Amino acid sequence: MIQNIHRLIPLLPLLLGPLLAGCEQTPPAAMAGISAVVEKESAQKLRILRPRQVWGVLPTNSSPTSEELKLIERFAANVGMEPEYVYVDRYDRLIPRLLSGDGDIIIDNLTVSPTRKQQIEFTSPITYVSEQIIARKGEAPKGLRDLGGRRVAVHASSTYYETLQTMLKQRYQPRFEIQLIDESVSTEAILIGVAEGVYDLALADNNLFQIISSYRKNIQVAFDLGSVRAIAWGVRPDNPVLLSRLNDFLGQHHLASQEKLVASDDLAAIKQRGVLRVLTRNNATTYFLWHGELFGFEYELARHFAESHGLRLEMVVPPSREQLLPWLRQGKGDIIAASLTINDLIEKQGVRFSRPYNQASEIVISRSDEIGLEHPEALSGRTVVVRRSSSYWQNLKKLQAQGIRLSLRAAPEELETSEIIARVASGEYDLTVADSHILDIDLTWRDDVKAAFPLDAPQQHGWLIRENNPQLLQAVNDFFKKEYRGLFYNVTYRKYFRNSKQNLRQVALHSEVFNETRISPYDTLVQKYAKEYGFDWRLLVSQMYQESRFDPEAKSWMGAMGLMQVMPQTAMELGLEDLHHPETSVHAGVKYLHGLMRSFEPELGVADRTWFALASYNAGIGHVIDARRLARQLDLEPNRWFGNVEKAMLLLSKSEYAKSARHGYVRGYEPVNYVREIRDRYHAYLLLAGSGSNARQHVMLN
Fold first, then answer.
1. What is the distance, to the nearest Å, from the Cα of residue 701 to the centroid of all Cα atoms in its chain?
2. 222, 228 in Cβ contact below 8 A?
3. Whole-number Å distance between alpha carbons of 512 and 498
4. CA 426 to chain centre
């Protein structure tokens, strides 16, 4: 059975976020005194217990936690209930909170174990996992007999700890040491610690290792312990009706025993599976993670299409752009949605383009000080750098065939177009070509390049579908026929490609309302919450100006709202609503920033924890964690933001670094500029308002 463990790993892991903490196990709790709770069948709300997450995860070839939440929300809708999330700070508090009646179901990665089954009921399995000993490459024990003298790092509350204790009770087992790790350290962090030499060995589930090893290459599986464990949702013993309903629902979705999917079948089979797999790229125009939420023009279109057919969306990101088409033909995805130019040559490879859903001109791009580059003939004697696999390459070859003596140079296939543009700006490359909508995004933040001239008439974009999937192709065509230039499409398009520079660029340092006694219209509110959470109020006012320019009705193109531009989902987790109300927005922003500050090691200086927290507020804490890890690899100081981690953050916009980052691509210039401008404005406020009654409450941050 163990040799066939891969056959037990289902299509829907549904566990990326929860896996960060491993399979936490709560010590037995006394059942006496827990009052019976009314069956939720007739209730209005389904209270869902889950760990509080302060950063999201970019899913690339597995299902994100957000999709698991959609599944439970679909169940709630089926039984006529409203989902209500109850957030718990630590995984080892989930079962006690369930038993105390604070929630009705735990959905975040509980391993079914005998100890837990004595406390709560479990649904049918969602997936199966096996436990593996994890080591640094080159230092792995070959089997149980080689564990003698080694240290294995785990949480005391985890099922891993139970497994290791059982092993130690076996007399023939060579003695090893169990290293207990603080519960606040995630299982992911333990595995990273193994990779970096902080810990000797770790014990983890196989699907967690697969996630971590996708971006940390210096760890390996030493060996499998041979036990298969089920992952399921937890329900109180006094709620059998809910348990029965959940089991019926999960059974309909075949979540317990599906193989990892490689399939080339058509829409009918896709609907039977309930999952649409979309191949794409991780960049600013297609699909990326920001503030812990998923964004991207192609992602939002694909999500809308999937939802219109009752399908769950799974985004699949191959290691390089040139693998998109092979992966589609091999059945590793159902659709390619990556802003591909419609091309007859590609359709000769067993695939078909959908009807167009977008068009863009191919623009020659030069540095901003370029003069006289206004037509194709001006390319003679110049070098143009593009990817060989791109439509740009083919159109430039046509110009060469017409007698224009340009030099055509192939860019590395792993480079995204924005990275090539950056190399033109730096002078490393002479010229390049990019779609106009990609350039539009880049020009919202940079002024060192410009559009020279279009190569040709606007080129149409389409999704790619296998030629033996006519039902899916027809469904996509019907979708674009209905949605193209409709309300949803227009709002989504403007969101990514038509926002003004004023909305997308960092705001200027000057504040029009500033004077010696008053910085903002909301000083009193800010001072109230600054005192409660331990901040210098002028730092918070500087951040507020950066976020909204003191406009309580402000709403960003990504959905952040109010004076402090908090995402509605974040506010909900903080227990706050109505972000347009000034006091609510200020409270939410300061409380969120305070939580981010507490996420970093207390031994760090207050200043650097502040800069890390601000960068996390802007880009998401996951990207900051990635930048700190990268800084360490580059021999930069991972505990200092300015001149160190900020340099690593900038590199995470490059595919060669982003592909090895846990949270993928990030527009690194945004958090870098964000932190610098808040700091500079804060220092100005300190100097110009230094004589005010509230001055010098805190030591100035440097």
1. 30
2. no
3. 27
4. 29
The H or E element spanning position 302 is helix 297-308
* The two structure tokens encoding residue 493: 């398009």
Question: What are residue 519's DSSP bridge partners?
Answer: none
Distance CA 461, CA 84 (A): 40
Give me the residues paired with residue 278 across strands.
315, 335
Contact predicate 311/270, CB 8 Å: yes
Q: CA–CA separation, 488 vs 300, rounded Å? A: 10
- Report the C-alpha gap between 660 and 651 in whole angstroms: 11
Nearest Cα neighbor of 275 from 233, 319, 310, 250 is 310
> Scanning the structure block, which residue is given the tokens 């033109």?
424
Selection from 242, 233, 240, 311 nearest residue 274 by Cα: 311
Measure the CA–CA gap between 666 and 375, rounded to whole angstroms: 34
Provide the residue type at 132 as one letter: Q
Annotated active-site residue 547? The verdict is yes
* pTM of the predicted structure, to 2 decimals: 0.56
| Residue type, position 479, single letter | F
**CA of 336: how far to CAs of 340, 341, 346, 425, in Å?**
8, 12, 12, 30
Distance CA 702, CA 690 (A): 16
Active-site choice (547, 646, 670, 677): 547
d(CA 626, CA 662): 6
pLDDT along the chain (702 residues), means of 10: 34 31 34 32 76 57 56 83 85 90 88 89 82 93 88 90 86 81 82 89 86 80 83 91 86 47 86 86 82 80 93 82 92 94 90 95 94 92 93 91 94 88 93 91 84 90 96 97 92 76 34 53 92 92 91 85 90 86 94 91 86 94 92 92 94 87 87 90 68 41 62
How many angstroms separate the first and last alpha carbons of the chain? 59
